[in-house]
Amino acid sequence: MEGGRVKKCFVSSQAVMGMLMVQVMATGMQLLSKIILNNGTFVLALMTYRHIVAAVCMAPFAFYFERGMIKSKMNWSVFFWLFVNSLCGILFAMGLFYYGLKDTSATYAVNFLNLVPIVTFVFSIILRLEKLGLSTRAGKIKISGAILCVSGAMIACLYKGRTFHLIHKTLQHHVQVKSSVLHKTRGTILLIGSCLSYSSWYILQAKLLKVFPFKYHTTMITCIFASIQSAAIGLCIDRSNAAWKLEWNLQLLTIIYSGSLASAATFCLISWAVVRRGPSYPPMFNPLTLIFVAVLEALIIGAEITAGQLLGMVLIIIGLYSFLLGKTKEMKNMPKSNIEAAEAATTVESTKVQPASPLTTTNEDIESGSVKDVVNP
User: Fold this and answer.
1) pLDDT mean by block of 10 residues, the chain; 377 residues
2) Residue 227: phi, psi to the nearest 5?
């Protein structure tokens, strides 16, 4: 009897542990990226190498789970949409995020990632992919959450207030990190552009899924295109050997970590959780990254935490959970026939259903606010 309870508790906690692992990996990626960017790493070189690693890691999944399935689907139209997918979702979204991260701080930048579900929701309203539903309780909760998220971001951007240090300033000299000159205004503009690009990218997935509904191949090919695009633009900006040289240092570790864990492993864990708990489950854990990054950045890098950031973080977390709660209630209140029709429209084949990917999101994912990074940038 006792053994059965332990087994049941272990099974029920697997999804929670999986999503906690995702947030821990995302936190590590944000901090490692911030450190190497401060130390002079060329952003486009980082993106090129990272997505080469991600493509290599995704290849076994693509060729094993989708072998022999894509021959009839590959054409110039598919290549065009995959090219646009990588251009919008990786080159613009991730590139702008990295440059914004370089100009600000990891804690400040992660605030904008938590706004992606809200901005996607606004775009869905504008494009008439979703209704406001102000006459329903779920709709009111959803709108209130969106307002709180936007308010939190505004406060974090515009209000500083009192500053806090979790470690004494004299201890910061032991941390070998070059401090970058903060250009907060420029960084904020870049992060807003990244947020808009990510949201546009998720809307784009509805079209991409119709023309090429193979998630592992889409992820792999998108990463290949992203590497080519990043390399092409990067070489136009900086062709020096120093910008592209790889050495056995923290930069190489960050590239391998980002490509294998923050992209490939995160993809597998999120897909597994979506299948078992639904698409709205993974993003409920996203605010944890904000908390982890804020604390570790203050402890490791010695970054300051301001009262405005703390207040903004609290409002964004409350707002995001309110938004997801409203979306969950809304999905439960939908007629069963509508849900079945949506599922049928996004099924790869009539008898096969594949898990959702961070790089290929279905209409249901968009409607439920399942907006991740992240593939975390």
Assistant:
1) 62 79 90 89 94 93 82 82 91 94 87 83 80 78 84 81 68 46 82 92 79 85 94 94 91 92 82 69 77 82 80 86 80 58 40 36 41 40
2) -65, -45
Report the alpha-carbon distance of residue 6 to residue 226 in Å, rounded. 45
Closest CA to 218 of 370, 43, 375, 45: 375
pTM of the model: 0.78
Going 43 to 201 to 119 to 324, the CA torsion angle's sign is: negative
Residue with tokens 């919008």: 88
Amino acid code (one letter) for 339: I
Length of the chain: 377
* 163 bridge partner residues: 306
**CA gap 198, 373 in Å, rounded:** 8
Cα(137)–Cα(4) distance, rounded to whole angstroms?
40
